[in-house]
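User: Teach me something about this protein's shape.
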Amino acid sequence: MSGHKAGAEIERLIQILSRLPGLGPRSARRATLHLIKKKEQLLRPLARAAEDAAERVDTCSECGNLDVNNPCAICTNPKRTKDVICVVEDVADLWALERANAIKGRYLVLGGTLSALDGIGPEQLNISKLVERAADPEVKEVLLALNATIDGQTTAHYLTDALELCDVEVTMLAHGVPVGGELDYLDEGTLSAAVKARKPF
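Assistant: First, the predicted structure itself:
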């Protein structure tokens, strides 16, 4: 007996969902089935939310955050101090630090880390934007809030060299961030402690 084949529309939805991180083909099929069963409560609102996000969300030209405004709400917030730039690998890390309410300054999203294995060199990352912003006399500190991985540490060393001519102190996260740990998975208390205990790099 041949297995049941879903219609083209359903297959398309499964294919798209299976490309999401953490969802393989099996999880994508289960998620699709759940969405279709709950069409009015889930599928239609999801389709509308996805359409709105696709139309309105943009990448901030200043820091790389995702927002409906460009520059984003963080960059344009007059209450944020201009003396600290917090450098993160990814938007997820920026959001994690914001949830922890740990940073009073502004951010810069690198867009990844240096990785010879993945073919990611300095030109693929937002390094020139960081150096340009760090050259502003108002900026006194660049806090490297990078993941405590080998690639994260390699990137931190590279950034320290790149910022040498800028008149800034380069610091990094301290206690509480375990080696191999990723910021997005840490609790708010751990993140706050790591920011407070930062030290020169």
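Now, about its shape. The helical segments are 8-17, 25-37, 39-56, 91-99, 127-134, 150-162, 188-196. The two ends are 64 Å apart (CA to CA). If you'd like, I can walk through any region in more detail.
User: That's plenty for now, thanks!
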